[in-house]
Amino acid sequence: MSHISRIELEIMDLQSLKDACKKLGFHFMEGQTRYQWYGKWVGNQPLPDGISEEDLGKCTHAIHVPAAVFEIGVVRKGNGYILLWDSWIGGGLQKHIGEDAGILKQAYAVESVKRESRKKGYRITEKRMKKGIRLSLSL
Amino acid sequence: MKQIIIDVLDSGEIKIETRGFKGKSCIEESQFLKDLLGEEKARNLVPAYYQTKNKVVIRKHLPLCG
User: Fold this and answer.
1) A44-84 pLDDT per residue, tens
2) What are phi and psi for residue A32, nearest 5 degrees?
3) How distant is the Cα of A16 from the closest Cα of chain B, in angstroms?
4) pLDDT-derived band at A89, boundaries 50, 70, 90
5) Cross-chain CB nearest to A113 (options B6, B17, B21)
6) Taking a C-beta distance cutoff of 8 angstroms, is the pair A105, A136 a contact?
7) CA nearest neighbour of B14 among A7, A53, A48
8) Cα A79 to the chain's mean position, in Å?
């Protein structure tokens, strides 16, 4: 063992996000510039950095979750993307994408690592663990 | 065997661990994952990090106090 790093995920690769959506049974809506949400900010949660109330409901692309009423906005921010979505229970998203969209972020990270590692010639094994997914790369 | 282990938790949190590397090569080998996934928030170096391929680097410290 040599070192251990903790990473805060940033969404940089749109293709991996599309692959993650496909794996989870979601539909990536390329070029859809509005996403379904409650329609009015009620102020019960802080807005993400750099996002104002006027930005809510607008996006660069969207993700449609078949079993949910609300959608996820994929918003271009700097070199990457952020996800905007309404966690109101009636919208039905949280059940499918997890708290703080953890399930979607996890699927994105897994697809992203697999895609790039394959390019570099690593052998990849994937294993479901108690609290997440473990990818092992070896040369 | 040299391995890179990536744990992606259900919360979206990511932990990368390198195994079997000596010296700084672990940082270089795993850098592409950090570039790919986002910002490195914390890093713990373990004893193997301070080893070169053939010898152990002895780190000497000067007694600055007392």
Assistant:
1) 778 888 889 999 999 999 999 999 999 999 999 988 999 99
2) -75, 120
3) 11
4) confident
5) B6
6) no
7) A7
8) 16
